[in-house]
Amino acid sequence: MSIIQCVPNFSEGKDESIIKEIVTAISSVEGVKVLDYSLDADHNRSVVTFVGSKDSVLEGAFNGAKKASELIDMTKHSGEHPRMGATDVIPFIPIKNVTMEECVQIAESLGKKIGNELDIPVFLYENAASASHRKNLAKVRKGEYEGLEEKMQQSKWQPDFGPQKPNLKSGATAVSARMPLIAFNVNLNTNDLSIAKKIAKNVRLGGGGLHSVKAMGVELKERNIVQVSMNMVNFKKTPLYRAVELIRAEAKRYGVSVVGTEVIGLVPQEALIDSLEYYMGIEEFKHDQILENRLYQD
């Protein structure tokens, strides 16, 4: 049995009733199992995680995008997280008995279906990218919803599928195939956004920081603090604790400190065990020393 994970991000993080309707639309597909969903009011964004077979995840993802196009109006949306569409991104991740190439095919099929049936422009990125300049999601999404119309007038930024202009209500959607990533945030005890942005620049790979890390500074207005918000693209190359410790060191330069961390959505157990070993100094620790792992062994 093949297992594929899909982690769509929707531009709504305040009204849980909307996300519940989207989750219901996704989970209505036979063979789909929704593992988790979370809302973030400051980012005004939600992340849904579900798994299934090739056919079921494609149908589930389409159902979610369709329901989001009905319920989310991008002309009224604002939030701290970059976004360009009601259904902002839809990545497919190979988990078991499936290849990256097969996930790319699913991404292409979904992109075509969204473009044709929902009249929403679709850009392929990461492993599914149709050109090298489209691999990086940050470049695809640069300009966000407000800049889409002008951006799409450029020949190199015409969508892979769908109309050649933004959908006024739904914007555009980015679809991909990629390896698992961890959405991991570090909170600071200051409300100075410029500090979070400076630290994020030094932490992310593009700023000369850590391998496989994307980072930006954002405000958490409800808590009156700021955050270094990260995508850990490959936790085996840069573990979570290394990002935390670099941020902690950078924060000291500005007289601030780390007050907490946050995982959005699901996280591989191995990523947490790596940090457990580091902070507790456990020597020669093995994964089968975890009780639950031993219980579930065949």
TrEMBL record:
It is an enzyme of class 2 (transferase). SMART domains: FTCD, FTCD_N. Its EC number is 2.1.2.5. Residues 2-179 form the Formiminotransferase N-terminal subdomain domain. GO terms for biological process: L-histidine metabolic process. Pathway: Amino-acid degradation; L-histidine degradation into L-glutamate; L-glutamate from N-formimidoyl-L-glutamate (transferase route): step 1/1. It is found in: Cytoplasm. One of its GO terms (molecular function) is folic acid binding. InterPro entries: Formiminotransferase_C, Formiminotransferase_C_sf, Formiminotransferase_cat, Formiminotransferase_N, Formiminotransferase_N_sf, FormiminoTrfase_cat_dom_sf, FTCD. Residues 180-294 form the Formiminotransferase C-terminal subdomain domain. One of its GO terms (cellular component) is cytoplasm. This is glutamate formimidoyltransferase. It comes from Proteinivorax hydrogeniformans. The gene is ftcD.
